[in-house]
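Q: Here's a chain of 187 amino acids. Please give me its 3D structure as tokens.
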Amino acid sequence: MAYKVDSDYDYLFKIVLIGDSGVGKSNILSRFTRNEFCLDFKSTIGVELATRTLQVEGKRIKAHIWDTAGIERHRAITSAYYRGAIGVLLIYDITKAQSFENVHRWLRELMDHADSNIVIMLAGNKADLSHNRAVKESDGQRLAEQEGLVFLETSALEAFNVEKAFQMILVNIYKIVSKKAKKRKHW
């Protein structure tokens, strides 16, 4: 979803957060949109939505950010929610090797349900727990390079790289959208 409008923002981009249950998707969303972090873990049921407007290259970009349940029984809900998404934050927990191994499954699901031009960022969350690390940062970086993804480690608890992750994905999306808009003007 990349719409140009004439209200309080110039563009509206739909971003989805995906990854296994418990990797910190909801806290990343909460940290980015409300600057809050909740220590009480509650699984997301279905889908949650939050928004935030940012400046990107002089334009007001409104990000509609969708947080989905990472639990298998909610998978039917998630396939429809990719529709219209222009960006994805694929999150794993650096302390849980299984969540990193499941990144390939999430990428397959994206290929099955999302637009082929979608911007994907891989984020290793919970960098504040590096003393319990099960996934090396270099492994995340290597996987991102192999798959052509942007990569960053984050910590929703410490607000480390959360803002940067969304800025990076929104800048990448904006560049693609503005390049397409310029091409249309030249026709």
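Q: Can you summarize the key feature?
A: The beta strands are 2-4, 11-18, 47-56, 59-68, 87-93, 119-125, 150-153.
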